[in-house]
Structure formats: structure tokens, C-alpha cells
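To the team - magnesium ion complex, inputs and output below.
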Amino acid sequence: MAETISITDVSPRDGLQNQAVHLSTEDKLELIARLVAAGVNSVEATSFVSPKAVPQMADAGELVPRISARFPQLRTSVLVPNLKGLERAHAAGAQEVAVVLSATETMNRKNINMGLDEATEVSAQTVLAAHDKGLRTRAYVAVAFECPFEGKTPLAEVVRLATRMHATGAGEIVIADTIGAASPQKVRALFAALRDVVPMDRLAVHLHDTRGLGAANAWAALEAGVRRFDASVGGIGGCPFAPGAAGNLATEDLVLMAETSGFTTGLSLDALLDAVDFAEQQLRRPLGGRSSAWLRRQRDKRLAAELQPA
Ligand code: HMG
Ligand code: MG
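Output:
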């Protein structure tokens, strides 16, 4: 029987946080509806960060209760950088939060205005406080391969921070290639080291596709035993505080790669394309992962065949 991989679609958060066009709460809900229709059962919906820093996420307090009401079965995580973010997320009824710790001093300063040690402590405190409130947690370790400010990230540093977040009890440790600088060999080496300190089923990978290696890196992670992936429809995304960060690995690319390699995802490629189409209309520019043009041609051929007279 095919082995299942789980996908958290981060389109509404990572995908929209850096866009020139700001989606309304209603349109974010519509995007999430398309994801759910495609079989997505886990999303990262928004972030409770400073609206001055990321105005695209300013409606988080309104969005979360509307998601809970409309999609009660959907696993919904929200990003929180500190205790204030956690308080806001909890007040909005969030059930799961993600903290974001970067593996270098400068990236933490640029992203959340803390040094590495403070970011580590604040992330740990936020995870513990979330557990006290009965919430589930994820902990990102960002710039896990390369930092846009400090260059290559030492593997031992990523292992140290992942170990710390695991010891704190974070439910999922999300290894993030913020600027898409990983290679399959580096992914293999990092997860080979991580599996000695964090159980494999607690590890996830969050890949950006800056250099076209997103799917190859996801394959290396699969071979290393990772079964939890982040991705975004159409490959939208990027961190506003990490220069050179392109979009995430596209959900449709990940699904195509996994489904044609003996894994099941529970997601429908045709329905995912509807979500890509919707995001494209909203953001008013062409979108799509590496496979989207081909996938669209297959969809068009199928539709044309269905329209043929019998
Ligand atoms: P700061 O200025 O150092 O915060 O910002 P502060 O504690 O000095 O407070 C300043 C003001 O912000 C105060 O308000 C606080 O109340 C408020 P004022 O008194 O001036 O009116 N404040 C907040 N407001 C709303 N929500 C909060 C919050 N905290 C303080 N949670 C802060 C620190 C972290 C807030 C800021 O730097 C920030 O919001 N940064 C945004 C970070 C972000 O969203 N980055 C993108 C997401 S991470 C990412 O994309 C990477 C990832 O995808 C993985 C990967 O690919 O690597 C996850
Ligand atoms: Mg990201």
C-alpha cells in the first residue's frame, strides 16, 4: 500500500505575506475553500505579527474565527513570533501556533528584532505558554541551509536549535530553507544528523524554490524519511525580511512528484489548479509551480475530450 505524506499548505500565510496585492479576509477564506476542496487538511492560515511589519496579515484576528466556523475539520496553524502573538492567536481561537527561530544572529534580528539567544528563549517560552493553553505547536528553524546575511549555516547549529525546540516539547520541528539554497545532498546530510536527536515523525521540511531545486530537495527529504512537508499553491511566498527568498515549493509540484513516486497525498491535482487559478486572478499575475503549465494542458485536454460528441 502506498505510504502517505502529509502536506501543510502555507499559501494563506507564507504565500500572501509578501504580495503587492493585499487579499481581503473574504478572498483569503475563498482561497482556503479551494484548498479544502482539493483535499488539503492542514493549512498555515496567517500570522499574528506586527501589522506595521506585515500589513498583509493585519486581519489575523478576524480571519481565524471565520476559518474555525467555516472549516471546523481543518487543521489550522498560525505563526506567532512572541508571547504577544500567542495571546492574540489564543484570543482568536487558534488551536495550533508556529514559532519562528532562525539559525543565525542577523536573520533573527531582521525578522523578529531579537538576537539568536533571545529568539531561542522567546520561542521556547512561547511554545511552553501555548502548551499551557492547550494548543499544539510547531517550531520553525529558518535559514537552515544558508542565511542571506551570514552565508552558509553550520549544520551543528541547526541540530542544536532543533534539539532545543524538541526538548521544549514542540510538536513539529520545521526545517526551513528560507532562501531556497539547499541541495539534495545537503538535505540528506542535515536530516541524517537530525534523526539522531529528533524522532523522524516530528520533523517537517519547508522548502523555497528559488533555484529550481525544490522538488529535488523534497525527494531527498522523502528518501531521508521525512513525511511532513510545507508547500504553497502556485509556489507563492517568500519572507519579506530575507532578501532573495522566492516562493515556496509549489503544492502541485510536490503532489505530482509524490504521487508518481509511490506516495499518496490525498490531494487532487485538478482541484489544486483551481486554487492556483484563483490565486492568480487575485494577485493579478501569472503563477504556478514548475509543473503547472503541463498540468493545465492535461486538464484542458481532458475537458476537451469530455466535450467531444459521443
Ligand atoms: P518589535 O518592534 O521588536 O516589538 O517587533 P516590540 O516588542 O518592541 O513592540 C513594538 C510594537 O509592536 C508594540 O506596539 C507591540 O505591542 C507590538 P506599540 O506599543 O508600538 O503600539 N507587537 C505586536 N503587535 C502585534 N503582534 C505581535 C506583536 N509583538 C509586538 N505579535 C515583532 C517584534 C516580532 C513584533 C516584529 O519584528 C514583527 O512583527 N516581525 C514580523 C516577522 C514576520 O512576520 N516575518 C515573516 C514570517 S517568518 C518567515 O516567513 C519564514 C518562514 O516561512 C520559514 C522560512 O521560510 O524560513 C516561517
Ligand atoms: Mg517560508
